[in-house]
Amino acid sequence: MLIYPTARAVFAAAIGAPVAAAAAMAAPQAWLIGPAWLILVLALVLIDAGLAAKPSGASLSLTTPAALPIGGEGEALVQAVFDRRSAPTKVEFAMEGDPRLTVEPERRVAAVSERMAGARLGLRPVRRGTAILPRVWARWRGPLGLVWLQKTEMTARAVPVTLNIGGIKDEAMRLFSRQALSGARVQPDLGGGAEFHALRGFLPGMDRRTIDWKQSARHGLLLAKEFRAERNHHVILAVDTGRLMCEPVAGAPRVDHALNAALLLAFVSLKNGDRVGMFGFDAKPNLATGVLAGTGGFAHLQHLAAAIDYSEAETNYTLGLTALAARLQRRSLVVVFTDFADTTSAELMLDNVGRLLGQHLVLFIVMRDDELETLVRRTPLTPQDVSRAAVAAALLRERELVIERLRRLGVEILEAPADRIGPALLSRYFDIKRRGVL
Question: How many angstroms separate the CA atoms of 278 and 172, rounded?
């Protein structure tokens, strides 16, 4: 509880000084007007505080959205309820924000109706993570307008700020509408994969290798096997959350692009009948889930991804990939989102990727660095430009060498711009399903 004078009370007290000075100049014995005026104002302030609604008789509550996506907007509802003894006519509300979530406007005034007042404050997500709204304030004037009475409520309300994948999800639906993921009836992906579906009459243009000669001889009709993409596969999304992945590219940290694509693949995989798990690591593993099935698991994965914070730690590939390999009991598609800046870290990564390749199919996601490529292509105008271009070219050569070594190990490589890895990853996922390599 806090009580302090309003601007009106300060102004009323201040105007007593020039009045007392003028009176003292006219009649020296009238100097007592100044102290008397201050005492009068102080008495009125005390009376106003006594007549006002007491903070102890008010209760504050805060209602916030369950989660907010980056780029979206939301509202928080702050309410004050007063007891039966008294209530002000207006209440001014304010709420403390968070580096991940700003509050707009800073304060808002609401009228009191039936001893209750409420105001909606806008919430604008700034960066991914779990935002904490620590406290809210409400203050109101006394009947004379000379005193503020303020109540503070410690809320510590957590609001997850998640990635906004709505636009890319819609684009994926358009690109892969053949899979009928958004409809009520899921169509099997026929003509690819390794899971036997049915026998059908052989038609011109069909692959002759699909002819079932035994069944054809038994029925006296040339029959061919029809296959469909296998389901119930395990898809593991391994996201490096170390220092390099937190550097910005294409307007956002690399890890945000990675999580965006990972969640998009998770949504499609779950709708397609596969099981999805997520694994995060930097200096040590920081997230490990079991495999989830069904579309209900997507919301859980989305909230877990929102809780992954930005890290300044160096990535420990030995600990992270070893822990991941120990958790996997069944052959899986392991999608690794990472970045490397030197050959030393790349060597450690290559040594540990080999442990996964013995049993699993590994897909590496490589984000193109447009800034480095621009430095290489740009015409140098100064000696500094030449130095930058040389360094950028060396970094790109090291990256290409590492990518080539990964290919030789048997790792699938997907290289795409950071803001386009989502659709590109979906295309590669369906290609893997059709080839039946899992």
Answer: 21
Dihedral pair phi/psi, residue 328, rounded to 5°: -90, 120
Mean pLDDT by 10 residues, the chain (438 residues): 85 77 67 76 88 88 88 89 84 91 90 91 88 92 90 89 71 57 42 58 74 80 71 89 86 87 89 90 89 84 84 88 89 90 73 83 87 81 86 83 86 88 88 80
Concatenating the DSSP letter of every residue in 39-57 gives HHHHHHHHHHHHHSPPGGG
Distance CA 234, CA 334 (A): 8
Helix-then-strand count for the chain, H and E? 12, 20
Alpha carbon of residue 192 to chain centroid = 35
How many residues make up the chain in this entry? 438
Point out which residues pair with 93 in neighbouring strands: 108, 138
pLDDT for 181? 41
SS3 373: helix
Residue 138's CB: how many other CB atoms inside 10 A?
Answer: 25
pLDDT at 212: 79
DSSP secondary structure code for residue 32 in this structure? G
Helix 254-271 to helix 421-435 angle (10° resolution) is: 40
Strands 58-63 and 147-162, sheet pairing: unpaired
Q: Domains in the chain, start-ordered, CATH in brackets?
A: 55-162 (2.60.40.10), 196-228 (no CATH), 231-435 (3.40.50.410)
* Rounded Cα–Cα distance for residues 362 and 357 (Å): 6
Q: Burial of 199 by CB count in 10 Å (0-12 exposed, 13-18 middle, 19+ buried)?
A: middle
**Global pTM value:** 0.69
Strands 412-417 and 361-368: parallel
DSSP 404: H
How far apart are alpha carbons 297 and 338 in whole angstroms?
24
Question: Are the beta carbons of 361 and 332 closer than 8 angstroms?
Answer: yes
- CB atoms near residue 364 (< 10 Å): 22
CB-side neighbour CA atoms (13 Å) of 337: 30
CA distance 420 to 415: 10
